[in-house]
Amino acid sequence: MLATLIIVFREVIEAGLIIGVVLAAMRGVSRRGLWVSYGVLGGIAGACLVAASAGAISAAMDGAGQELFNAGILTVAVIMLTWHNVWMARHGREMANHMKEVGEAVARGQRSLLALSVVVGVAVLREGSEVVLFLYGIAVSGNDSAAAMAAGGALGLGLGVAVGAVTYLGLLRIPADYLFAVTSGLIALLAAGMASQAVAFLQQVQMITAFGDVLWNSSNIIAESSIAGKALHSLIGYTDRPTALQLIIYLATLLSILALMRLFGNAPDQKKTRVAAVG
Predict the structure, then answer these.
(1) Mind listing the pLDDT tens digit for each residue in 86-135?
(2) CB 159 within 8 A of CB 9
(3) Which of 186, 2, 27 lies closest to 112 in space, CA to CA?
(4) Cα–Cα distance, 236 to 191 (Å, whole number)
């Protein structure tokens, strides 16, 4: 029971933190809950498919299928998070000033909402598939009964959802004028962490071998397998033994997102200023 509780709690924390940040980032947007629900349901469905075909995925590409699959879905998430942050850099200020009206317009456009729905789905898919595979291993080992696993899973799920809810409610306490800057920063860190994780999966199967030296080992301070380590891993891409390439990709992704936000973020305000000057 304890093993099941810890596994479910650890994985639900990761998905819950991402969902909490996403919901806070779209505060005031009409139908955001519906789009997040689409992502959650899609992720659950995908996790079930992954569980059903776990053997085939693992055996694909000479045994590297699971790592390549993980790298692929993380890459999709990075693209969607980058798209969202650039879009929000253009529209975040007007959304803060006109939450309801602009929120309805965003919902009609479905652009940023679709991106975040995909990110939620990817998060649930990744963590859900890991939960299924881990629990399958516990069941096969015969260490826990079905009832004990069900009880541990339910407790882990409840605790993980609670942590995600606390994250969301904490972000909601931030004034609207600053909320988009805070959530955009968190989402940029999420994207950088996911890009670094994608590289780690490719390095595991020797698809990438350059800059593979481990830079440091901080497991004696915060182990990546610990609850705190998993939370940091989810939010900012923390790993206790990063390679040089992981750090390079992390910084490159983060700087690229910030540069794109700066490049495209001022266009609406500049246009408004020109119109006001003409008037």
Answers:
(1) 776 766 555 444 444 444 444 454 456 677 677 788 778 877 776 776 66
(2) yes
(3) 27
(4) 8
pLDDT under 50: residue ranges of the chain? 95-107, 109-110, 140, 267-279
Residue where the block lists tokens 């994250």: 167
- Amino acid letter, 230: K
- The DSSP string of the chain is -HHHHHHHHHHHHHHHHHHHHHHHHTTT-TTHHHHHHHHHHHHHHHHHHHHHTHHHHHHHHHHTHHHHHHHHHHHHHHHHHHHHHHHHHHHHHHHHHSHHHHHHHHHHH-HHHHHHHHHHHHHHHHHHHHHHHHHHHHHHHT-S-HHHHHHHHHHHHHHHHHHHHHHHHHHHTS-HHHHHHHHHHHHHHHHHHHHHHHHHHHHHTTS--TT--B----TTTS-TTSHHHHHHHHHH---SS-BHHHHHHHHHHHHHHHHHHHHHTTHHHHHHHHHHHH-
C-alpha angle with apex 40: 162 to 133, nearest 5 degrees?
Answer: 85
Q: Considering the entire predicted model, what is its pTM?
A: 0.66
